[in-house]
Amino acid sequence: MGMLHTLELENFKSYKGKQIVGPFKKFTAIIGPNGSGKSNLMDAICFVLGEKATSLRVKKLSDLIHGAPVGKPVAAKCSVTMAYEHDNGKRTLFTRIVTNRAGNEYRIDDKSVTVQQYNSEMESIQIFIKAKNFLVYQGAIESVAMKNPKERTALFEEISRSCEFAAEYERLKAEMLKAEDDAHHNMDKRRGIAQEKRVAKLERDEAEKYQNMKDELTAKQKLLFLLELFHCERLAADAKNELEERRERVQEFESKKGETDDQVTVRQKALKKAQRDHQKLERDVAEKEREITVQRPLFVQAKQEVLHVKNKLETAQKSQVAAQKMAQKNDEQLNALAQQAKELEKKKTDCESELNTQSLELDLNLSEEQLNTYVALKTEAGKRSGIMDRKLNHLMQEYETDKSAMANEQRRAVTIQEKIKTKEQEKERCKRQIEHLLETSEQQKSLLKDENTNLVHTERQVKDSKEQLEKVTTELDDVSKQLSDASGDTAESERVRRRNEAIDNLKRVFPDKVYGRLVDLCQPSHKRFQLAVTKVLQKNMMSIVCDTEETAREAIAYLKEQRYPPETFLPSKGIEVQPINEKLREIQNPKGVKLVYDVIQCNNSAARKALQFACGNALICENADDAKFLAYGRAGDRHKSVALDGTMYQQNGIISGGAAELKQKAKKWDENAIRRLRERRNVLQDECNTLHRTRRKELDVEMLRNKICSIESRLKNTQKERERLEHEALQQIANELEVLQCELSNVQPRINEIESKMRLRERDIKAMQEQSYACADEVFASFCQNIGINNIREYEEKELRFHQERKDKLSEFDNELDRVRNEIEYLRSEDKNRKATQEIDKVKKLEKDLEQLKKKEAKEEKVLSKLEKESEDLKQKSSGQKTNLEALEAELTIAKKEAQLAHREVSTAEKAVLASESVIGRKLSERHQLLHSAKINQVQLPLLAGSLAEVDADDEDEDGSQPTSTATISQEQIDREARIKINYRTLSDELKNIEDEDEVRKQVEKFNQDIAESQAVISRLSAPNMRANQRMEEVREREAETSEECEAARRKARRLRQMFEKVKTDRYRRFQECFEPVTQKIDEIYKALSRNASAQAFLGADNMEEPYLEGIQYNCVAPGKRFRPMDNLSGGEKTVAALALLFAIHGRNPAPFFVLDEIDAALDNTNIGKVASFIYDHAKDTMQVIVISLKEEFYNKADALIGVYPHPSNCTVSGVLSFDLTPFKQTGLNESSIDVSFSAT
Fold it and tell me: Which of 173, 625, 770, 935 is the most buried (most CB within 10 A)?
């Protein structure tokens, strides 16, 4: 098993800074004075093992930082690192860090981990911080022995980890008890149902007797229903035969109508296609115009850029030519000066060669003795003429100085002359540039004038277009308003446009499913009916007619998606309509009464049902009095009526008029007026589009203004540059020339002055030389005579003159070379070639830019030309398409008139069909009423096919007892009832052969009388519980359900008990695996600690079957004493008992180390020795023990000592010392011979 090797503390409690404690041995003692921080070391171990703040003697984790308790933390965090050494020598570092914000960080081998991963790694080395079976805090050793039985049980549960099953144990136990209670409850319920079953059997017998009488009554009722149904079906069959004949005539007219409708449809499709094509062409034209509007500015911009770059290029080319000329001239001057420098150098070289030759020829051959004599005499002469020589040298130096000044002034004069020449050239360039800017300014003024003229013309065009557009827009709004009013809608033209666009899109998206608005699908047969028809159709006038409800839902979704206004839909196959009341067509009084449905011509057969739904059985009258009479005149025979003036009377007493509004809405019916308005609107829209395209020239106006601003800006810059050159640059050059001329004029007087000085000095030098010569002649008289010369100067002058001449000649060459080189350097410094190169590069760049811009201009011009040509082609196509559209509209009008005539013929034939269908409907309704009555009265009719369950399957009223009315019976219901085939074999032939309806009525009354008598007899009887059989079945069902529930509850209880027993077994096994070895080992350990075989320790559970549910008793008998309860033992005895329990638990579930804080406090010296010996013996093999002790008798047996001492400070600061005792034990020294002392400074 591994062991704790070292601890590293950083700013933890009293340990300031970073301190390393250890290494720890198998038996390590921590010693030190009170208050030095020994227990803080114990807290550090607990902290790194994951202990909470409450166990570390602080309120919060941030108080662990050194200085934090006194409000002066030395750092923002503290940490403890434990080095744990495994058996194989490998070490693992466990680190826990706390910041001043009470944040926790856990690390393993310096890698950040979660607290769960940290605890898991701790548990892998047998450290369970919750159990605390390896930690004994200061003063807590007795509390281990004094735990109550339940606390000991909890300790063992934590150590054995059987507590992991506690929650599951409690849950399954509760569920098991509940399941067993449910099983007992179901058994009681089953007994009650058996009693209820016996009572239900008695009620069933009484009900059977009563049912026999009911059966007789039902047989009579069945015969009555068969008689009525037989004759109802016979009359319906006769009406169907007549209906077939009338339908054949309708089909003939339908065929003719179909041909005319096909013609209308074909022409409508052709017209719609032409309209779509025309609209597409208009959109294409608008799109092309928009593209042209976008493209034209691009072309103009490209053209302007080309012009701008051209101007820049011309200026740059002129500058290039001037720069090249200046560079060429500069190169020529440099070449000439370079050639002159070469010639001067050659002349200098030749002169030097010639002078060297002359030097050899002029040399005098003197012997060595003569030379020595010359030197001595020269020295003597120098002594005699020293003062004169010094004066002469001084004069010579002044003369050379003047000569040098003369040369400098001459060079300066040459330099100034060159500068004057350069400035003159610069002045000429400036004048040429001014002339060029003046020319450019005139060109820009001309261009500005042309552009201003173009701007005025374009602005006039735009203004005229705006005024004309306002007039056309006003007229178009007026026409659109008239069309909007005629469309039955008073909203603004934009809303009308949106609604028209919506219906067009719906027809396009749902072809052959959405037919159009009701107002567009029909029209009054005469103009005088317009107000009345408008009044009746008012709310449905603008409704959209479609085929099915599904189409309506899809169309509504489409409208929502496209954000169109709300619309009302009338699905032809989804609306329930009242059948036409044929009696209303026969009204004679008052005269002139007609059904509103009859005075409307429907252009689309698919919309007739929707029209019938909107009209209902409303009547149209000649005047308001007639309408009022029909609505309120006769009780029980009232009808919705409307007068020709639009006044409508309803059966419920509501009267409504509104002639002015109706007249406005009735304009919809005026087809010719609408057509003219539409044609005018189309013309105005075309004109608007044309004017809008003209208005697009506003962009051209803006571009022209921008262009004019640009030209004005360039003109202003040009004038400003010309003025700058005229008034600043030329003036500056003139000023500089004046300064140079002034300097040049000042140089010549200085030269004359220097020449005058030089002449005076030459005279003085000559006089002084003559004196010097006389003195020398006197000294060198005999020497000159010996060597055969007149005087010494003859010798010296030859040499000196030769060298002076040599020096002067070479100096002349050097001065001339310096002048030429300075001039070359000056010309090179101006670097005219670089400027010429820059101008060339600038021209090349501008030429390249111009080429690219020209390509761009050509490209934009090509695109613009293409777009304009395409736009013109589309306009021509649109014009041709518009002519074709007008022709198609005329053809459609003729086809519609033919179709209207065919529709009237079909309408007359259909009215006859409707009359027959009305008869059939009444008979079918009677049959429905009879079948419904039979079903309600539970009369079982003999059937060949079908079932009475199909009668009113979907159409019964809310209470389920009222029959469906004639007006609301649906076709689906009729189809279902048609499948019901009745078997009339039980009906006698005598009853079947009755043909007179009065005779049939008499037979029915007779049957009704017999039935009434039978019902009276039954009513006098005390009615039994007719639900006895049902109740019996219910009881049986409940009995079966209860049996199943009872069995299910038993199975559930058995299953839960098995699950509970498994968890119980697992919990018991895990608890006992820990508890049993401890009970067996504790007595042995207690004897070893007491060093006496008479000592006894007992550990036993109160509940042997489930020891974890109750307490665990722990008692010890000290050596030589009788049994006493644990709380009556002395402090030392309690300590030994607690240690025995801890060591026994450790033996079963060993942690890698024990940490004990001052466990020897209550022990006397004898017990200390026993405990120390026990720990020493066991620390060698099975565990590592770390103790905090104040008693030498205890810690002198340790393998190593850790000394803790305090530093003097306002806040306690602990220091640590380590001392390894192992070498002393290995050398055989006993404990008493080791004197260990610690001192700290």
Answer: 935
User: Measured between alpha carbons, how far is 1031 from 1025 in angstroms, rounded to an integer?
Assistant: 9
Q: Give the integer Cα–Cα distance in Å for 1047 and 1045.
A: 5
Query: Residue length, the chain?
Result: 1241
Q: How far apart are CA 264 and CA 894, in angstroms?
A: 9
646: left (phi over 0), alpha (psi -120 to 50) or beta: left
Both tokens of 229, joined, read: 């149904």
Contact of 79 with 98, CB cutoff 8 Å: yes
pLDDT tens-digit readout, 1043-1077 = 777 888 888 888 888 888 888 888 888 888 888 88
Distance between CA atoms of 288 and 285, rounded to whole angstroms?
5
Owner of token pair 């009620």: 203
Phi, psi of 382 (to 5 degrees): -65, -35
Contact between residue 248 and residue 1045 where contact means Cβ atoms under 8 Å apart: no
**pLDDT recorded at residue 701:** 75
| Residue bearing tokens 């700013």 | 11
pLDDT tops 50 at residue 41:
yes
Q: Cα(1043)–Cα(183) distance, rounded to whole angstroms? A: 11
Tokens of 935: 């079903």
Q: Is the peptide bond before 590 cis (omega within 30 degrees of 0)?
A: yes
C-alpha dihedral, 396 to 398 to 403 to 406, nearest 10°? -170
Domains of the chain: 1-127+1151-1241 (3.40.50.300), 486-673 (no CATH)
pLDDT of residue 361: 53
- Which DSSP state fits 947? -
Q: Give the residues across from 1115 on adjacent strands.
A: 1098
Contact status, residue 477 vs residue 493, Cβ threshold 8 Å: yes
Report which secondary-structure segment, H or E, holds 11: strand 3-12
Among the listed ranges 48-62, 381-395, 1117-1131, which one has the minimum average pLDDT value?
A: 381-395
Q: Tell me what pLDDT residue 1015 has.
A: 73
- Reduced to 3 states (helix: H, G, I; strand: E, B; else coil), residue 74 is coil
Distances (CA, A) of 695 to 289, 690, 1125: 11, 9, 114
Beta strands of 42-151 (E only): which ranges?
A: 77-85, 91-99, 104-108, 111-113, 135-136
Distances (CA, A) of 889 to 264, 266, 267, 484, 679: 11, 12, 8, 21, 11
How far apart are alpha carbons 1186 and 1164 in whole angstroms? Answer: 20
Q: What is the pLDDT of residue 93?
A: 92
Backbone angles phi, psi at 1207, to 5 degrees: -90, 140
Compute the chain's Rg from CA coordinates. 66
First-to-final CA distance of the chain: 39
3-state DSSP call for residue 1234? Answer: coil
Q: Report whether 698 contacts 460 (CB < 8 A).
A: no
Orientation angle between helical segments 671-695 and 166-362, nearest 10 degrees: 30
Token pair belonging to 1190: 């104040």
Q: 843 is written with which tokens?
A: 């021209």
Peptide bond into 23 cis (omega under 30): yes
Look at phi and psi of residue 51 and say left if phi exceeds 0, alpha if psi is from -120 to 50, else beta. beta
If you average pLDDT over residues 1148-1155, what whole number do you get?
76
How many Cβ atoms from other residues are within 10 Å of residue 336's Cβ?
A: 13
Question: Both tokens of residue 1218?
Answer: 């380590």
Residue 65 gets which letter from DSSP? B
Q: Is the pTM of this model over 0.90?
A: no
Q: What is the pLDDT of residues 936-957, one digit of tens each?
A: 776 777 777 877 777 765 444 4
For CA atoms 248, 253, 256, 261, the dihedral sign is negative
Q: Extract the tokens encoding 641.
A: 């009526």
Query: What are the structure tokens assigned to 403, written together?
Result: 């000569």
Maximum Cα interatomic distance, the chain, rounded to a whole number of Å: 207
Quick one: tokens of 203?
Answer: 């009620």
